[in-house]
Every structure is written in structure tokens, then in C-alpha cells.
Write a structure and sequence with these properties.
The chain is mostly helical. It is built from seven helices and no strands.
Length: 201
């Protein structure tokens, strides 16, 4: 009898701990499911839907809960890739005068593109309602369109250049241009859902 009591108490204690652990280690609600749904439904008609879904589903920045959050994330992705492309261009070593000219112009155009995207991101964080919202939307669309034009112009500057340099630059800048195009699409969508997220002036 004396040897069974400690064993019973031990088993009872183990059962209690197991019961408690069921609640403390149970699965938490999947808070990312709504974010994933928003990304998929918003990206389905984007210029490059597969890229849109992939880049924003794996986005590791702030939480994406509204169309405004999604547009901000898209611009951040574009800005990040533009910076990486600019770093790549700056590190290239070229020989001919034509290559140097095209590369110099492209670096400048990418700097302008990043400036436009930075202004866009700043404005997206302070959207208002009414007439101010329309004015802001006009600015946003103008800036992102300008960024996209700069990226296309950079690629055009290498049309007369053959070989690996041209293909490498085109690959890098096309990557940026596609996510920028998606960002522009998601910004355009904000007009349809502004009442759900816009802040007061």
C-alpha cells in the first residue's frame, strides 16, 4: 500500500500536467489566412499575377490586413528590388564608351525611380478621404508611372549593346519593372475600396 501511493500521485500529477499542456501548446488561430486571401484576390488581375502573389505572400514586413497595407507592401517590394538593381549596376565594370554611357544613364534613371517610389510610399501612409484622397491618388499614380517609365527607359538604353551586359541588365531591370507594374495596379484598386481603410484628413 505504501509503495502504491507515491506511484498514484505521480500518475495523477502527470495527467494534470498533460491536460494543462494541451491548452498551452494548442494551435493558435491562423491569423495569416485573411492576409493570404487578400493577396490572392487582389493579385488575380494584376499585370503579373504569379509574381504578385509570390512576392506579397512571402512579404515579411508589416502585417497586410487592408488594400492600403497591400499597396504599401507592393511599393516596398518594388523599392527594395530597385535598390538591389541599382547596386548591381553600380558594381558593373564596362569598357566601351557606349556601354559606359548606357550604364551611367541607367543608374541615374534607377535613382529617379527610387525617388518616385519613396514619395509614393510616404504618401500611401497618410491617405485621406474626399477631394484630398483624389488628389493623393493622382500623385501616387503619376509617381509610380514615372518610376515604371524610368525602368523601361533604362532597358531601352541597352538596345544597341550586345552580349552578356545587355542580357544581365535587362533581366535585373525587367524584374523591377514587373513588381512596379503590379504596385501600380494595386494602387489603382485603392479607389474602389477607399472607404474601408482611408484615414481622416
Amino acid at each position: 500500500m505504501t509503495t502504491k501511493m507515491p506511484l498514484c500521485k505521480t500518475l495523477l500529477l502527470a495527467l494534470i500536467l498533460l491536460h494543462l499542456s494541451h491548452f498551452t501548446t494548442g494551435k493558435k488561430p491562423n491569423t495569416s489566412s485573411s492576409s493570404t486571401d487578400l493577396v490572392r484576390t487582389s493579385c488575380v488581375h494584376a499585370s503579373y499575377p504569379t509574381i504578385c502573389i509570390r512576392t506579397l505572400s512571402s512579404y515579411s514586413g508589416s502585417a497586410i490586413n487592408t488594400p492600403q497595407d497591400l499597396a504599401q507592401a507592393a511599393v516596398k517590394v518594388s523599392l527594395s528590388r530597385a535598390q538591389k538593381a541599382s547596386d548591381f549596376l553600380s558594381a558593373l565594370k564596362v569598357q566601351s564608351k557606349r556601354e559606359k554611357g548606357a550604364l551611367s544613364d541607367c543608374v541615374e534613371q534607377m535613382a529617379d525611380s527610387m525617388d518616385e517610389l519613396s514619395k509614393t510610399l510616404s504618401e500611401l501612409k497618410h491617405l485621406s478621404k474626399g477631394n484630398a484622397f483624389k488628389w493623393q491618388m493622382s500623385n501616387l499614380e503619376t509617381w509610380v508611372s514615372a518610376a515604371l517609365t524610368n525602368e523601361d527607359t533604362c532597358i531601352d538604353g541597352f538596345k544597341e549593346i550586345d552580349g552578356k551586359l545587355r542580357s544581365d541588365v535587362k533581366r535585373k531591370i525587367t524584374n523591377v519593372a514587373r513588381v512596379t507594374s503590379n504596385a501600380l495596379y494595386l494602387i489603382n484598386r485603392l479607389d474602389n475600396s477607399r472607404n474601408k481603410f482611408a484615414t481622416h484628413p
